[in-house]
């Protein structure tokens, strides 16, 4: 048996590496196990899906493609003449890879600075908190720990009608690696990942069709926001077909023949590339021995309580392998909470205040309850909405689409939901998160002074509108 640790973390994604750093900062002897290996097979890669093939590279491509789109279609009306703007896909991918490399290398530096031991290999939990690590050469080493944190993340779901082939039918990872813009691109799934990746390639010139099995667009999003979002995506040329159930995908003559059924019966389309983005599943392959004492459900999620404890003493699990939204920031918060609890503190993640973001253009972001959730629960509420079309800064930035919507309790005025579609929604939603963390009322935001001219003034106006007091837009008449 090798060294004994206070904490061993399995997985170096946003849940695992953050938990390891925090545990080390709290004075615990900590190791982090990660199996991801560089393309040349020589070195360990930290950061997990998010940094390597998820959040970060996709945001790099979203930013670059948005700038390209704006240069081609938004500059002229602002008096900027830029003719014949071209995209260099190779250079774009180089830029994306450079950002990823910088950030993943940074985690290695943080491990060293905080005294975290990095172990390269596949980690498996055995009974009594023993972690078995198999390195790339097949050598097995066992480590003991007082506490083990499982943070192995998730991987894309593959569906039987469209198995990945890595070239024509790809997952979200493959969609970040195209070496040219596909003429016709199919996307299965109109969720966060499908919409973001579809947007990237549509802006760069692809004809994009998104097929979604359910009938409601973005069912988890407040439907006033979702309907506005759908209109804007359709204006951008995204062909989004709802209620389209995929039945098959076959590659013939370098084209993907896709068959599906919708309200009009059987349909068929041909694409140059097909992205399958129907969600992700927990990555728990060979993670646990049968006697590890950790329970999983039929979908592979590890059972934990509100503090991320499993049923095995001293074993915790965070991030995409446990219940709740598969979000990097949620995983990080759970990682910090678990490290703090191991050190004897008593923090708690407030799951009611975790923001969600879709990084399209416009961005969509929300926290808390939707109007539909409150209606079905029979809770009395009131809403305030303010459009960016009436916001001077949004107009000046040529980004005046969308709105801010605040939902408050009818009696107490406490903010229950905060929803944004529009420019910088991912940043603006943080104001709602902070307000809700402090139990703010809509009146608290209405009485707060916001700088002028800013996009955030729309938050102020939406809060005023909750009680019919918006200044820069006509208020709805109150029912007598």
UniProtKB/TrEMBL annotation:
- The record's EC number reads 1.8.1.4
Which PANTHER family did the record assign? DIHYDROLIPOYL DEHYDROGENASE, DISULFIDE OXIDOREDUCTASE
**UniProt KW keywords:** Cytoplasm, Disulfide bond, FAD, Flavoprotein, NAD, Nucleotide-binding, Oxidoreductase, Redox-active center
UniProt xrefs under InterPro entries: Class-I_Pyr_Nuc-Dis_Oxidored (IPR050151), FAD/NAD-bd_sf (IPR036188), FAD/NAD-binding_dom (IPR023753), FAD/NAD-linked_Rdtase_dimer_sf (IPR016156), Lipoamide_DH (IPR006258), Pyr_nuc-diS_OxRdtase (IPR001100), Pyr_nucl-diS_OxRdtase_dimer (IPR004099), Pyr_OxRdtase_I_AS (IPR012999)
UniProt-annotated location(s)? Cytoplasm
Tell me which NCBIfam families the record gives: lipoamide_DH
**What residues bind FAD, as annotated?**
59, 123, 320, 326-329
Q: Which top EC class is given? A: oxidoreductase
What is the originating organism of this protein?
Answer: Marinobacter confluentis
Give the protein name, as stated in the record.
Dihydrolipoyl dehydrogenase
Q: Which residues form the Pyridine nucleotide-disulphide oxidoreductase dimerisation domain?
A: 354-463
Instruction: Name the positions where NAD(+) binds.
Output: 189-196, 212, 279
| S-S bonds | 50-55
Q: How is the cofactor bound?
A: Binds 1 FAD per subunit.
User: Extra notes?
Assistant: The active site is a redox-active disulfide bond.
Q: Where is the active site?
A: 452
Similarity annotation:
Belongs to the class-I pyridine nucleotide-disulfide oxidoreductase family.
* GO cellular component terms given for this protein: cytoplasm
Classification of source organism: Bacteria, Pseudomonadati, Pseudomonadota, Gammaproteobacteria, Pseudomonadales
Q: What is its cofactor?
A: FAD
Domain of life (superkingdom): Bacteria
Molecular-function GO terms, alphabetical: dihydrolipoyl dehydrogenase (NADH) activity; flavin adenine dinucleotide binding
- FAD/NAD(P)-binding domain location: 5-335
* Any one Gene Ontology BP term: 2-oxoglutarate metabolic process
Catalysed reactions listed for this entry: N(6)-[(R)-dihydrolipoyl]-L-lysyl-[protein] + NAD(+) = N(6)-[(R)-lipoyl]-L-lysyl-[protein] + NADH + H(+)
């Amino acid at each position: 048996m090798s060294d004994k640790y206070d904490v061993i973390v399995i997985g170096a994604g946003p849940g695992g590496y953050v938990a390891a750093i925090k545990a080390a900062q709290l004075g615990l002897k900590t190791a982090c196990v990660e199996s991801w290996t560089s393309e040349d097979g020589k070195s360990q890669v930290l950061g997990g899906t998010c940094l390597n093939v998820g959040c970060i590279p996709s945001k790099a491509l979203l930013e670059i493609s948005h700038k390209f789109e704006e240069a081609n279609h938004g500059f002229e009306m602002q008096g900027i003449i830029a003719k014949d703007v071209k995209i260099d896909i190779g250079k774009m991918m180089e830029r994306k890879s450079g950002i990823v490399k910088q950030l993943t290398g940074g985690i290695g530096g943080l491990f060293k600075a905080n005294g975290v031991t990095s172990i390269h290999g596949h980690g498996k939990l055995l009974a009594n908190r023993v972690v078995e690590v198999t390195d790339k050469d097949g050598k097995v080493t066992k480590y003991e720990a007082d506490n083990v944190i499982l943070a192995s993340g998730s991987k894309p779901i593959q569906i039987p009608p469209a198995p990945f082939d890595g070239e024509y039918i790809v997952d979200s990872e493959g969609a970040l690696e195209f070496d040219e813009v596909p003429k016709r691109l199919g996307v299965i799934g109109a969720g966060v990942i499908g919409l973001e990746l579809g947007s990237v390639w549509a802006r760069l010139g692809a004809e994009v069709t998104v097929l979604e099995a359910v009938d409601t667009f973005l069912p988890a999003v407040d439907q006033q926001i979702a309907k506005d979002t759908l209109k804007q995506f359709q204006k951008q040329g995204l062909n989004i077909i709802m209620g389209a159930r995929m039945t098959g995908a076959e590659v013939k003559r370098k084209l993907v023949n896709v068959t599906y059924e919708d309200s009009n019966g059987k349909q068929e389309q041909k694409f140059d590339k097909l992205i399958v983005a129907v969600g992700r599943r927990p990555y728990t392959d060979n993670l646990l021995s049968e006697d590890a004492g950790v329970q999983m459900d039929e979908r592979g999620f590890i059972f934990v309580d509100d503090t991320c404890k499993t049923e095995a003493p001293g074993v915790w699990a965070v991030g995409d392998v446990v219940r709740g939204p598969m979000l990097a920031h949620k995983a990080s918060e759970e990682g910090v909470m678990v490290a703090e609890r191991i050190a004897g503190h008593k923090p708690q993640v407030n799951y009611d205040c975790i923001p969600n973001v879709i990084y399209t253009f416009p961005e969509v972001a929300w926290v808390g309850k939707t109007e539909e959730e409150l209606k079905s629960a029979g809770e009395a509420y009131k809403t305030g909405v303010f459009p960016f079309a009436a916001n001077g800064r949004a107009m000046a930035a040529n980004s005046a689409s969308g709105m801010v919507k605040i939902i408050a309790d009818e009696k107490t005025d406490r903010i229950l939901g905060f929803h944004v579609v529009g420019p910088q929604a991912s940043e603006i939603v943080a104001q709602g998160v902070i307000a809700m963390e402090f139990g703010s009322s809509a009146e608290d935001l209405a009485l707060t002074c916001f700088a002028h001219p800013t996009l955030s003034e729309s938050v102020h106006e939406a809060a005023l509108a909750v009680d019919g007091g918006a200044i820069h837009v006509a208020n709805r008449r109150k029912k007598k």
